[in-house]
Amino acid sequence: MKTFPSDDLAKDLKDLDLGSDLLPVQHSLGMAWDLQSDSFTFKVSADPKPYTKRGILSTINSLFDPMGFAAPVTIRGKILFRDLISGNSDWDQPLPSASEREWEDWKDSLTLLEELKIPRTYVPVSFQGVITKEIHVYSDASEKAVAAVAYLRTVAKDEGQRTGFILGKAKVAPTHGHTIPRLELCAAVLAVEIADLVCKHLGLPLDVVQYYTDSKIVLGYIYNQTRRFYVYVSNRIDRIRKYSQPEQWHYVHSDKNPADIGTRSIHTSQLNLSSWLSGPTTISQDSCAHTFILTDEENDKELRPAPSSMKTKVCDTSGSLDTRYLEKFSSWESLVLAFTLLKCMARKIQNKDPLGINSDTLKETERFLMKKVQYRTFGAEIDCLLAYSPIPRNSTILSLDPKLDEHGILCVGGRLNKAGFDARLKNPTIIPGDSHLARLLVRHHHSRVKHQGCTFTEGAVRSAGLWITGSKRVISSLIYKCVSCRKLRGRQQYQKMADLPSDRLMPSPPFTYVGLDTFGPWFVVTCRTRGGQANNNNKRWAVLLTCLTTRAIHIEVVEELSGLDVGRNPP
């Protein structure tokens, strides 16, 4: 204070002799600064507050502690406040008396804060002789609170190592929905926020910034490079990695973690001697080279499922086509169109001349599909024909005298080669009856003949130049399963009638039980008399009464449809 000019001093300090007079306590923004001891102190309000929600909140907020010196003490009051107001009572209604004694004890213990003196300087040495200046931040969490605290560690030539309190924070944890690893992660986020705030406002060139936590699960999250997290953990890991690097994070045992005091709170009388203000006794740097892996990856619900990779084996395309690809199609047209588009895209990728979709390309695709399906079933026969060898005697198509046409497609032989009609009728293409391609072709031609019977469908298949082995069985099976055919050829169904009512089954005289109905009207000529018209209404209706027992009928003529006129002349 002697270094400041007297004009810059406060009014109560201008007339004092700073060397001999007793210096007063200065207040700034709620903080009390004892000039005599150059330390911070607290001034606790002695005003009595009622035991209500408003009174408890007023008591807690009356203690101004922006640096977090008394955070392990005030967090206890905040936890009590959360527990007491869980019943959603009115702000001025007295709270339950079960916890009143605990609240009074904590409120009375706040008076001990007036005896607490925290040195204003971080460390009792000058920064001029300091070799290294380091920031060490500790974080911890429990079911009730999360806390983080930062310390300044200096190393001087003559003074050795010194550690001083910088800033601490403690927050009440959510009552539900958070596991301990999530709360530890929130504490780690609070630690990097404190470190960022300290580095911005401390105004010192720092050599090292280190972080410590007693949760190896959180360390595994921070060091992770292989797995992905769900949104909650992912967002907080991004914030941690934004302000720090994984190499700055280390493990510390709970017994040596000062932030542990902020999560479980302590009595006011123990605060002055606790490690919250004095810092850890030793700061080990042995863990700097350690790396941490994810813990229990199989059961960790915060981890997304590991991505799986599939290996594709490229086979020789000169052989048969895998029928699994054909079974994905339910119609012949969609199968041919899909393979035609695939062929066009392949030529475009290979920088060849692209082919348009026309009748020629569609025919080429049809021949390609038939050739591949034939080779899958009749590969031995095709190899024999290519080698000009006789077909095996156990072949199922030996009686068809098979041969290969100019496109390499297996066709029926025979003695009609010199006939003057179409070549596909003389030598139809052989299609395996047990293939999915045969079912698609039969369904296609069955639709073209408008769902006619087996004879029409088989004729359409033969007219298209196709010879399906076991065609009658394939066609009958498809028509039996065809939904349209079952609807068209299905037997007419009859509704089962309910039981007759008892009135129709009991012997009784005629017209004891009747059914009533009305029909009409008819236009009739009215009768004129001396007094005028006999009836102004020229419409007539009839009431039909049917006996439920004998089925006899009786008809009555009525002039109106009112209930009075209908019931005037009973049968």
What does this protein look like?
The chain is built from 18 helices and 18 strands. The longest helix has 28 residues, at 359-386. The model has no long low-confidence stretch (mean pLDDT 85). Helix 2 runs antiparallel to helix 3. The chain has helices at residues 11-14, 53-61, 71-84, 100-109, 180-202, 216-223, 231-243, 259-264, 275-278, 323-326, 332-349, 359-386, 423-426, 436-448, 454-463, 471-481, 483-489, 563-566; strands at 25-28, 31-34, 39-41, 118-119, 130-141, 145-156, 160-172, 208-213, 249-251, 403-404, 410-411, 429-431, 466-468, 514-523, 528-529, 532-533, 539-547, 553-558. A hairpin with a 2-residue loop joins strand 15 and strand 16. The termini are far apart.
Structure, briefly:
The protein is of the alpha+beta class and 571 residues long.
Provide tags for this entry.
single chain; 571 residues; alpha+beta; five-stranded mixed sheet; flat
Question: Which helices and strands, and how do they pair?
Answer:
Layout: H1 11-14, E1 25-28, E2 31-34, E3 39-41, H2 53-61, H3 71-84, H4 100-109, E4 118-119, E5 130-141, E6 145-156, E7 160-172, H5 180-202, E8 208-213, H6 216-223, H7 231-243, E9 249-251, H8 259-264, H9 275-278, H10 323-326, H11 332-349, H12 359-386, E10 403-404, E11 410-411, H13 423-426, E12 429-431, H14 436-448, H15 454-463, E13 466-468, H16 471-481, H17 483-489, E14 514-523, E15 528-529, E16 532-533, E17 539-547, E18 553-558, H18 563-566
Parallel strand pairs: 5-8, 8-9, 12-13
Antiparallel strand pairs: 1-2, 2-3, 3-4, 5-6, 6-7, 10-11, 14-17, 15-16, 17-18
Helix pairs in contact: 2-3, 5-7, 11-12, 14-15, 14-16
